[in-house]
Each structure stands twice: as C-alpha cells, then as structure tokens.
C-alpha cells in the first residue's frame, strides 16, 4: 500500500481536483454512452414491436 | 469458415448478442486491474507527483481516439469496395465511441496541463491535432445524421471518413510544423525519459480495457442499427418475440 | 476530354457572370470579415501586422466555403446534373471542371482583393506579394477539397452549414502552410519550405479530390 490513509488517497498529493476531475468525467462519459445506447435500443425495440402488431391486426 | 456467412445481418445479430457480455466483462475486469495498478501499485512520479496518474486514462483514450478513426476507415473502405451492409453499420457504430474517447483525451489533457504547464489549454501539436480529430468525428456524424436515406448516409459518411483518414497524417504533420515554428510561448513536452515498469503496465492494461469496452459498445450499437434496418425481414420479426 | 473540361468551366463561369449578385456576396463577405478584426482587436499597427496573414487566410477559407454549397446545387435542381452524369465523359472531369470554375469565380477575385486588405493590416510590400502568392497556390486547394463537401451534402437541408463542418478541418494544412509563408516573410525565417509544402498539398488535392467528389456525386444523386 503506497497511501498512508484514505485522506491522502483522495487528496492525490494536492492534485485531487485534476485527477478526480479526469476520472470522474471519463466515468460520466461512459455512463452516458451506455445509458443512451440502452435507451435507444429499447425505443427501437418498442417501435418495431408496435409496427409488427399493426401488421398482424 | 465462411466470412460471408458472418457478414449476413441475421447471423451477426445473435452472434454479437452472445459476444457482448464477454467483452463487457473483460473490459470491467481489466479496468479494475488497471486502476488498481494505476492507483495502488504504480509509484509516485518524481517530477509530476501524483498528478501524473491522469495518464492512465489520458493515454489510452488518446490511443483509442486515433485507432477507432482508422478502424472506421477500414470498415468504410471494405463497405465501399464490396458493398457489404454490415461494414457500414460497423463504421457507423464506432463513430460516437471514437468521438467520446477524443473528448475524454482532450478533457484529461486539459486537466493534466493545468498543474503541469500552468494552463488549461496549450496549443501543443498533440492537443491541437486531437481537437481537429474531434472535428473530423463530428463532421462524419453530422453528415450521417443529416441524410435520411440510410444507403446514402452510409456511403457519404464512408467517403468523408476515407478523405479524413488520408488527411490525418498531413494535418498532424502541419500542426507539428506550425508548433515548432511558434515554439517561443509554448512549453516543451518532454517527460521523464524512463517510465517505471508498473506505470507502463497500468497504461497498457487500461488501453486494453478501453479496447474491450469499445468492442462491446460498438457491437451493441451495431445490433440496434441492424435491427432498425432489417425490420421488414422475417428473422427480425422472430427476434421481437424474445427479450430486448 | 479536354474539350469537355473546358465546356464545363466555360459554362459555369458564364452562368456566374450573369448572376453577379451571388458572386459579389462572397467577395464582400471576405472584405467585411477581414475588416471586422481591427475593430474587435484595436488599431495597434504591430499587433495588426502579426495577425494580418492569419486573418486574411481564415477569411479566405470562410469566403470559399460560403460559395461552395451552390457548386452543384443549381444544376441538381434543374436536372442538368443528372444529364451530365449520364454523359460518357468521366465524372471526375466534371467535378474537376466545376472546382476550377469555382476557383476562377471566387478564388481569383480574392487574390486581387487580398493585397488591399493586407495594406489595412500594415503588411510590408514583400509580405503582400507573398500573401498573393500563397493564396494563388492555396485557394485552388480550397475549391478542390470543397467540391467534395458540396457533392456529399447535395440536396440536404442546411447544406451550407454542414459543408463548413465537414470541410473546415480538412483545410487546416492549407491554412497553416499558407499563413505560415507570409509569416515567414515577416519574421525573416523564409517561406520556401511553406510554399513547397503548400504546393505538394495542392498536387495531392488535384490528384485525389476530383475523383473523390465524383464518387460522392454518384452516391448523392443515385
């Protein structure tokens, strides 16, 4: 373990804002991409299902 | 092994569905390992302190941003040459992820630059090229979004992608050239000559994780695109019976 | 072959000569954009001299983009383009001719106006010459690469803004080498290297761009 305490870990030797700002934004981007992808997929799925139900009626 | 067999949307769709969880799991495990090495094993850099840990995402993101553009161009070229629908779908599915990594590379570059160079943005050759790469991604995506007919959108995007990929080295060269001529104000980007072994490993593992993530996300996006485009076919109708 | 090329060029130039209003818009746009910069930055001569080459070059990019979306659009709307695509002559010659015509109509006037704008920015005579020379080599690149964008966005909603988005990043090398050549004269570091690189970029665009925009036209029209 190279960190003396959790506090030291979060402080990142004074670079906390920059390091966590970077990792946080990356996490945000990935979460947004995955979330949008899932939403789009469900939307398409529902739309196609609706179209199919019209056809069979 | 018949490649044409896998190039048909009806085989691709279930196959991709089976592969995605594996790639996603690999991406997750590699990220955890990479972050562990990055934060708990890799020593403090004697010049940059703890701030250097940003490179564990900055460098993989920058690599991926360039690599994805080239892979997109590869699929575009195949699509234009052999008229395979799935290649266009793959090229299209990669674009948003590539743009995302480009943005992440720029963002983390700025956050790294502030403590190291004293400025959020420096017109350094690499940062500038990365910015132009983002513009290229935006261009391809905007063009594809503006065209309603998917056939035309695919081809137009592929052509622009290929023109872009020919231009990227020229742009990089011109920007480096421009940067060396205006060296006066900017800061030189010489890092510590030898990187600790563990830092390198952390970076490589994170790059691999980014790679796996890209494959998983691109396959998933491609699946949705295929579903939308093949909605008239029997196999899509059969698929709709199951779960999304 | 050459006859076809000349016919295309001649036709476009004649059409533009008849519609002078359209044609003048881009030139006045160029003059106005350049004149806005001193107003925004301040009239300090040494500062203006430093930014002059870059400002004139960026304005040239914008002016050429402004006139681009009509490159194929008029012919497309009245059906002439489809006729042309069906003719036995190679389409790349058609796009090359269109790009050359665009340069004659929009590029050459820029060359003539640029020295006047350079004077506004306090550029010395030598730098003015270099500005004209670099624009003379550079503006054909803008027309050639621009023809790709015009072909790709043919008939789309908001085509004008879209062309700008697609093509502007591709103009970066031309901007750097072109403005750099003038800069080289001002700072005394020489501009031969810039000019040769600009020339090489022109050769490459000349070889590839007509061919790519021919493919783009086929994609857009079919």
Number of distinct helices of chain C: 10
CA radius of gyration of chain C: 18 Å
The assigned structural class of chain A equals: mainly alpha
SS-based structural class of chain C?
mainly alpha
State the share of residues found in helices of chain A, binned by percent. over 70%
**Averaged pLDDT of chain A, please?**
86
Q: Number of helix segments of chain A?
A: 2
What does this structure look like?
The complex is a heterotrimer of chains A (57), B (244) and C (222). Chain A has helices spanning 6-11, 16-56. Chain A has 57 residues and is mostly helical. The relative contact order of chain A is 0.07. By secondary structure, chain B is an all-alpha fold. Chain B has one domain (19-41, 53-181, 197-231). Helices cover 79% and strands 0% of the residues of chain B. Chain B contains eight helices and no strands. Chain B has helices at 3-7, 9-41, 55-82, 85-117, 125-146, 150-181, 197-229, 234-239. The radius of gyration of chain B is 20 Å and the shape is globular. Classes of the chains: A mainly alpha (57), B mainly alpha (244), C mainly alpha (222). Chains in contact: A-B, B-C. At the A-B interface, α2 of A face α2, α3, α4 and α7 of B.
List the helices and strands and how they pair.
The complex is a heterotrimer of chains A (57), B (244) and C (222).
Chain A: H1 6-11, H2 16-56
Chain B: H1 3-7, H2 9-41, H3 55-82, H4 85-117, H5 125-146, H6 150-181, H7 197-229, H8 234-239
Chain C: H1 2-18, H2 20-41, H3 45-66, H4 73-77, H5 80-86, H6 91-120, H7 125-152, H8 159-167, H9 172-187, H10 192-221
Helix pairs in contact in C: 1-6, 2-3, 2-6, 3-6, 3-7, 3-9, 6-7, 6-10, 7-8, 7-9, 7-10, 9-10
Short description:
The complex is a heterotrimer of chains A (about 55), B (about 240) and C (about 220). Chain A has about 55 residues and is mostly helical.
Question: How would you describe this structure in keywords?
Answer:
heterotrimer, A: 57 residues, mainly alpha, 82% helix, rod-shaped, C: 222 residues, 84% helix, 0% strand
């Amino acid at each position: 373990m190279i960190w003396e305490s959790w506090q030291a870990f979060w402080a990142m030797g004074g670079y906390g804002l920059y390091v966590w700002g970077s990792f946080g934004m990356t996490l945000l981007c990935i979460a947004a991409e995955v979330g949008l992808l899932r939403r789009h997929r469900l939307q398409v799925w529902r739309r196609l299902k609706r179209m199919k139900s019209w056809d069979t009626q | 092994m018949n490649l044409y067999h896998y190039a048909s949307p009806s085989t691709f769709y279930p196959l991709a569905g089976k592969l995605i969880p594996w790639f996603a799991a690999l991406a997750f495990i590699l990220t955890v390992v990479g972050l562990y090495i990055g934060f708990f094993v890799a020593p403090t850099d004697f010049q940059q302190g703890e701030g250097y840990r940003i490179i564990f995402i900055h460098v993989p993101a920058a690599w991926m941003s360039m690599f994805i553009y080239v892979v997109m161009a590869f699929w575009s070229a195949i699509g234009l040459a052999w008229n395979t629908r799935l290649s266009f779908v793959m090229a299209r599915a990669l674009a948003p992820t590539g743009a995302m990594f480009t943005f992440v590379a720029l963002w983390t570059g700025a956050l790294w630059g502030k403590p190291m160079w004293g400025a959020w943005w420096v017109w350094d050759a690499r940062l500038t090229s990365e910015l132009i790469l983002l513009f290229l991604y935006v261009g391809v995506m905007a063009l594809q979004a503006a065209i309603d007919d998917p056939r035309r959108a695919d081809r137009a995007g592929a052509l622009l992608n290929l023109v872009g990929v020919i231009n990227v080295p020229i742009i990089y060269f011109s920007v480096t050239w421009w940067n060396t001529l205006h060296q006066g104000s900017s800061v030189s980007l010489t890092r510590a000559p030898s990187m600790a072994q563990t830092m390198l490993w952390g970076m490589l593992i994170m790059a691999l994780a980014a790679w796996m993530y890209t494959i998983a996300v691109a396959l998933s996006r491609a699946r949705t695109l295929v579903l939308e485009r093949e909605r008239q076919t029997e196999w899509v109708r059969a698929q709709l019976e199951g779960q999304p | 072959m050459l006859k076809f090329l000349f016919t295309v060029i001649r036709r476009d130039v004649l059409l533009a000569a008849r519609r002078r209003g359209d044609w003048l818009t881009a030139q006045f746009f160029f003059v106005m954009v350049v004149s806005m910069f001193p107003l925004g930055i301040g009239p300090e001569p040494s500062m203006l001299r430093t930014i002059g080459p870059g400002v004139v070059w960026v304005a040239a990019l914008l002016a050429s983009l402004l006139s681009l979306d009509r490159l194929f659009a008029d012919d497309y709307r009245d059906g002439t383009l489809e006729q042309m695509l069906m003719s036995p002559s190679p389409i790349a010659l058609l796009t090359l001719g269109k790009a050359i015509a665009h340069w004659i109509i929009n590029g050459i006037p820029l060359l003539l106006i640029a020295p006047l704008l350079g004077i506004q920015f306090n550029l010395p005579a030598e730098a003015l010459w270099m500005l004209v020379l670099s624009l003379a080599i550079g503006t054909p690149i803008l027309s050639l690469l621009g023809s790709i964008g015009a072909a790709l966005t043919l008939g789309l909603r908001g085509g004008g803004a879209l062309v700008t988005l697609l093509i502007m990043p591709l103009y970066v090398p031309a901007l750097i080498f072109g403005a750099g050549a003038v800069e080289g004269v001002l700072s005394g570091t020489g501009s031969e290297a810039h000019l040769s690189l600009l020339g090489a970029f022109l050769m490459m665009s000349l070889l590839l761009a007509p061919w790519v925009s021919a493919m783009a036209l086929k994609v857009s029209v079919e």
